[in-house]
Amino acid sequence: MSVIWKVDPSHSDVQFKVKHLVISTVIGNFNTFDGTIETSNEHDFSAAKISFSVDAVSIDTHVKDRDEHLRSADFFDAATYPKLTFTSSSFVKESDEAYVLKGNLTIKGHTESTVFQVTFGGSAKDAYGNLKVGFEATGKISRKAFGLKWNDVTEAGSVVVADEVKIILNLQFIKQ
Questions:
Q1: What's the rounded Cα separation, in Å, for the pair 85 and 83?
Q2: What is the CATH number of the domain that holds 60?
Q3: pTM of the prediction?
Q4: SMART domains annotated for this entry (predicted)?
């Protein structure tokens, strides 16, 4: 019998970082997301099946005009591709706290194999008796591989937006 865990969005965060003008980093979040983990028991996450989705329209970089541009066809084309999705192909335990998560990430209709380094934060019961677990997952992707190709060049020849995007997921899950 499998155990299902659902993401707790009020105690989770989906963040990305990308270089701007090669000199600074822009940090953004996706505010609406959902995910599940399916395990064989509540104590062993090795070989877990993981699925996750993010609403593209929920992108938030704290700059309204930039967010609208990111939602446009130049980037996520949120009207046509409303979700970014991830489905695991493997979740391998390397130590008590470290896992490697591999799977297929789909953005804007493009699917690429993606790898995340995952740290298990532990488990605890909340004030209501719900069992919760926490994970932090980090990875890097090429935005161009997913069709997010818009860019510009400054007068000095620097690109406006770097190709490499760092993804940081701090997620808490509730046992169902």
A1: 6
A2: 2.40.128.110
A3: 0.91
A4: YceI
Residue 106 Cα distances to 35, 86, 112, 133, angstroms? 14, 6, 7, 25
Q: Are 139 and 117 in contact (CB under 8 A)?
A: yes
| Whole-angstrom distance, CA of residue 155 vs CA of residue 158 | 8
Question: Domain span at residue 121?
Answer: 3-175
Model confidence over 129-159: pLDDT tens digits?
A: 999 999 999 999 998 898 877 665 555 555 5
Span 7-38, pLDDT tens digits: 999 999 999 999 877 777 999 999 999 999 99
Domain count for the chain: 1
Measured over the CA atoms of residue 21, residue 26, residue 30 and residue 35, the dihedral's sign is: positive
